[in-house]
Amino acid sequence: MIRNNNNYKEMLKNLNNKFGKVNAVLANEYIKVYPETAEEHRDMQKFCREEKIEFYVIRPLSERPFKIVMKGLHRETDIEEIKSELAIALPEIEILKVGQLKNVRTKSPMDIFMIELKKNGHENKIFELTHFMFLKIKIQNYRKPPGATQCWNCNMFNHSSANCGFQTRCLKCGEDHRTNQCPITTPQENPKCINCGATGHIASWRGCPLFPKIKPTKGQGVNYPKAQREFLASQYRRQENISYSMQTQKLIPRQVELNSRQESEFNPQTGSREIGHEKEFLGFLEGAKVMYDTLKSIPNLIKTISELPMLEKTEDMFNHLIKALGTVANSVSNVQ
Ligand SMILES: [Zn+2]
Ligand SMILES: [Zn+2]
Ligand SMILES: [Zn+2]
């Protein structure tokens, strides 16, 4: 990706002179250049740097690192130790980078580590790890947090500093150094945005008119922010906890309705009789639901009932049930 400057023609001419016919496509404020080989890709980057042609690299998927997160290690674990222990545990994998995730608000390190592996055909082996450094751990695919990637080198968007060939620009003063190298260390009263030029905010502020807005990813639904995701997850969990009877209450009548419609269509003559049966069945279901709810609120009663078929005589069954009901009556009166 080459920045589409006014001198783009000159830039493309230079590239063509150097590399023969290059395949270049206009893409909004950039020009996409497709090198033919990995070697040409490397040479072009070198050439662009030398000629001060600003660019960033879009890596093919196969070249991008394989990222996972490891949960369960102590938050104070040394990153170098993780690297060396991983190399011993799984010699087939190639570790590119290990980092620790930080809480966005408090900036405190979390007990989640991100590991980048080279896609060498063995990277999936990492999922075989269940215990590491004496602890039970969990390996999950890393999912990029929602929102735009902002480059640490140039502070523009949609690429990372590792792929950046743009001029370095400081977020605070716009000069040719990384933000963390800036001589300004105190918060500025009225900062100037290096991307849109307005005062009052810096270019990493989400409200900046040039800060890319979050778009839902195709086919993946909306990317919820973390807090919202957790909230939604807890909602789902709660749904799982809804009693079986409440779920059947929702499901069974609809099912019966469906069946009844089908049956009355297929069986017009006996329709009324069928519907009568269904009403009876529905009534039975409702009764069963009331009974189930009642039973559920009384500890041990379901167990007692499940034991009934083991008894031979009806008399024994009644006695068993009455005994259980007796203890239930006691416990209920105790509660009251
Ligand atoms: Zn950049
Ligand atoms: Zn600066
Ligand atoms: Zn701005």
Automatic annotation (TrEMBL):
Residues annotated as domain CCHC-type: 150-166, 169-184, 192-210
SMART domains registered for this protein in UniProt: ZnF_C2HC
UniProt cross-references to InterPro entries, sorted A to Z: Pre_C2HC_dom, Znf_CCHC
Superkingdom, taxonomy of origin: Eukaryota
One MF term in the entry's GO annotations: nucleic acid binding
Pfam families in the record: PRE_C2HC (PF07530)
Name this protein carries in UniProt: CCHC-type domain-containing protein
